[in-house]
Amino acid sequence: MKNYLTLALAALLIGINPVGVKADDISLNGAWELSFFPQPRKAVTSPDGLDQVQSQQIAATVPGNVELDMLKAGLIADPMIGSNVYALRKYEGYQWCYTKTFASPRVKPQERIRLVFGGIDCLAEIWFNGKHIGSASNMFIEHAYDVTEALKADGENTLQVIIRSAVIEAQQYMLGTFSVGNFAATESTYIRKAPHSYGWDIMPRLVSAGLWRDVSLQVVNETHIVHTQWMTSSIDLEAKTARIFVDVQLAIPFEKLDRTQARISLRRGGKVVHEERVRVISHAFRRIIELQNVAFWWPRGYGDPALYDAQVVLEDENGGVISESQCRIGIRTVQLDRTEYNDVASDYGRFRFVVNGEPLFIRGTNWVPLDALHSRDAALVDDAVQLMVEANCNMVRCWGGNVYEDHRFFDLCDENGIMVWQDFAMGCTFYPQRDDFARMIEEEATAVVTKLRNHPSLVLWAGNNEDDLALRWTLINFNIDPNKDRVSREVLPRVIYEMDPTRPFLPSSPYYSQQVYDGGSHDDLLPENHLWGPRGYYKDAYYTQAKARFVSEIGYHGLPNRSTLEKMFTKDAVNPWLDGNVGLWNDEWMTKAVRPFPDEPKQGGRNDLMTNQVKILFGSVPADLDNFIRGSQAVQAEAMKFFVEKWRGDKPERSGIIWWNIRDGWPILSDAVTDYYNSKKLAFHFLKNVQENVCVFINDAKAGKHPLVAVNDTRKDANGLVVVTDVATGKTLYEGNFAVPANGKVVINELPTQQGQGMLLIRCEIDGKPYTNHYLYGEPPFNLNTYYELLGKTNIYAIN
Predict the structure, then answer these.
(1) Do the two domains 223-329 and 694-794 of this chain adopt the same fold?
(2) Mean pLDDT throughout 58-69?
(3) In the CATH scheme, what is the code of domain 694-794?
(4) Is there a contact between 460 and 422 (Cβ–Cβ < 8 Å)?
(5) Domain named Beta-mannosidase-like galactose-binding: which ranges (predicted)?
(6) pTM confidence score
(7) Which fold has domain 4-218?
(8) Quick check: 364 and 394 in contact, CB under 8 A?
(9) Residue 583's pLDDT band (cuts 50, 70, 90)
């Protein structure tokens, strides 16, 4: 096992991950050669070993994944279609070698050349002109190597990256008792690779390999900026002032000290708001900046997400630029105001985000992988973030089974006022407690935190997804204490405390604190929880009587549109979806459910959940595919609408809902409200409507009366006029004016319980702008055609 702390220190000294630091990049993206072969008993780790095996060679593209190169070469069928993904199983035991030749850049005496990999998936040895220059064992972080001395003065250089099988290499590690039998694959436990790769209920098993982010040479002056960190220390909203810190760390020869200066500046809208020069007398220093007339960064709805251009420039004694770092920052404070446990009876329990001193209501979504083949992520991120903007989400939770998104994602969230809750990349299992694994996580966390910490949209680090909860699944008859977990209780908080102390940290989601554990680990004790449960009727007691103040996962199944089904299935598998002889799902529908292996219907039962939900609301499952789609999407849309309106209607006792999820990362049948092809389901339109900053809705009856509720998630008072009518009869049930205070809620009126079944139309004018909503009343089952007829008459949504 490598000494990961030594490697991390060496990386720091050559400037790995210099966030926003400008260097002369020479791209090594584009055409490479790829050779591959079954991994021998003794893995190949050197170019000499490559000569001892028989391999295939094809052209490759970097950034890329090996499957995409094989697809282009005609060696495999498109894994996104039908059950083709299972044909990739045999390649899990392969090794891969990427090879690139290129000419040497010109280097000045005071310059160094570093080779930078944005992402290597996953276990690799890197050879440069026949010299071993380093190893990689973590998919999630950048890797950099000083190759100055290894470069050829003339002629071409040869770069080789030899990747081993993550599945085979996993056998080298002993697993603990709790690691076996959890939700996540046991193969993933010790390997720092995206957990979803091994199969999840939202992603296929696709254990890929590749150089999945950019590869480049960077020409760096021996005197250069390693890191800059911008922090908001304190603010005064009324006076529009702020105190901010900027910490700068350099690599600088001793003889350059006292002869180098740093120019620090802040600009907004092209106008300089602060500039100063500092003589460099040490390799690290802090400047404290007092700002006047500050434009603060606010989440969506609560104000403008104001950004400043921040720059640090190193200059030599003649004023020449040596190195520079630039980024955009937002001036804001953030707190997670939470209690260790929940007790609704005594009104004790909180889980709420506070930005700039303002308690927020969170309307958010979960973010899952953009693609199973992550080299395609960069091309997908803009459209996916735009979906969140359109749905008016003010938070996105980056789920722990994923990779860490790159700067582009966070830049877009910065610009659009979307707060980011970032899980560390662990989920649904018990991770090793040994020193070697702890060192790996410390290296990873340090790299990720220092890379992303200047983004104002990032408001929370969370230790993992459901690892505390997973201990309850592992040994059913035991209640294992998650507070003894070394990774989430010691390693990660220590990194945050040292590297990013102004940002909150949550050990796990949901978090089973010592008080929760001592109280029996009951769901009611959790201030923040994931609400999945039996997934029956969306108004079952499981949902309506949940005690959590904040829900960070909740969802409901919904079929994609027919156009998407026709893309993801082979022609004959689209319809009928059931085998009429035995009444079972056809094989491709089981694959897309999602199951990791063809003979293991681990998650095929999710289709049964979906049909059961349709039966509950509409009495039966339509035999016609188009009507099945309509019924499934209607159930999902009404459920998701109900969840958001319930949580918003209980404001301020409830403080947020992060639903599952904005978009699929693969063509599947799922809880997402937009599919892999960005085709929106009905639920997307419902959610967009009920996530307006100010909106009016009807909650379910309490003591025989329906609360007509107005909520305001802005910092300004709002006024309006509302008219409630019955869609079928046109009868007016209520008409009146209302006022709802800033960041508040008001019950406008209480409406009598309606008899039978039907739909109410809520028409408003809020501060001069029209707003319309609906409420489905009555007990199921409803008639599917009647439902869509009534919905169509509201003219709120685009009805297919």
Answers:
(1) yes
(2) 98
(3) 2.60.40.10
(4) yes
(5) 54-213
(6) 0.95
(7) Jelly Rolls (2.60.120)
(8) yes
(9) low
Give the Å distances, CA to CA, from 395 to 88, 307, 421: 36, 18, 7
Instruction: Please check the confidence at residue 582 and state whether its pLDDT lies above 80.
Output: no
User: pLDDT tens digits for 229-288?
Assistant: 999 999 999 999 999 999 999 999 999 999 999 999 999 999 999 999 999 999 999 999
Which residue in 675, 99, 57, 71 sits closest to 373, CA to CA?
71
Beta strands 334-338; 505-506: pairing state: unpaired
- Of 138, 205, 195, residue with least CA distance to 429: 195
What does residue 204 show for φ and ψ, rounded to 5 degrees? Answer: -75, 165
Residue 151: which residues within 8 A CB-CB, separation 6 or more?
104, 105, 107, 113, 129, 157
- Residues pairing with 509 in the sheet: 465
The mean pLDDT value for 703-714 works out to 96
Q: In the chain, what are the domain boundaries?
A: 4-218, 223-329, 425-443+463-518, 562-629, 694-794
For residue 462, what are its two tokens?
């969370």
> From residue 40, how far is each of 37, 67, 96, 164 by CA, in Å?
9, 21, 12, 10
* Model pLDDT for residues 440-450, shown as the tens digit of each residue: 999 999 999 99
Please give the pLDDT value at position 13. 37
Helix, strand, coil proportions of the chain in percent (round to 5)?
25, 35, 40
Given this model, what pLDDT does residue 478 score?
72
Going by the DSSP 8-state scheme, the letter that residue 539 receives in this structure is: T
SS3 516: helix
Statement: 223-329 belongs to CATH 2.60.40.10? yes
Q: What distance in Å separates the CA atoms of residue 597 and residue 108, rounded to the nearest whole number? A: 55
Q: Treating both helix axes as pointing N-terminal to C-terminal, what angle do 625-649 and 784-794 enclose, rounded to 10 degrees? A: 60
> 110-113 long-range CB contacts below 8 Å, 24 or more apart?
110/221, 110/222, 110/223, 111/148, 111/219, 111/220, 111/221, 111/222, 112/14, 112/146, 112/148, 112/219, 112/220, 112/221, 112/222, 113/146, 113/147, 113/148, 113/151, 113/217, 113/218, 113/219, 113/220
Structure tokens at 333: 């404070």
**Phi, psi of 279, rounded to the nearest 5 degrees:** -75, 130
Question: Terminus-to-terminus CA distance in the chain, angstroms?
Answer: 58
User: Pairing state of beta strands 362-367 and 656-659?
Assistant: parallel
What is 393-456 written as a DSSP string? -SEEEE-TTSPPP-HHHHHHHHHHT-EEEEE-S-BSS----SHHHHHHHHHHHHHHHHHHTT-T
Q: Tens of pLDDT along 285-313?
A: 999 999 999 999 999 999 999 999 999 99
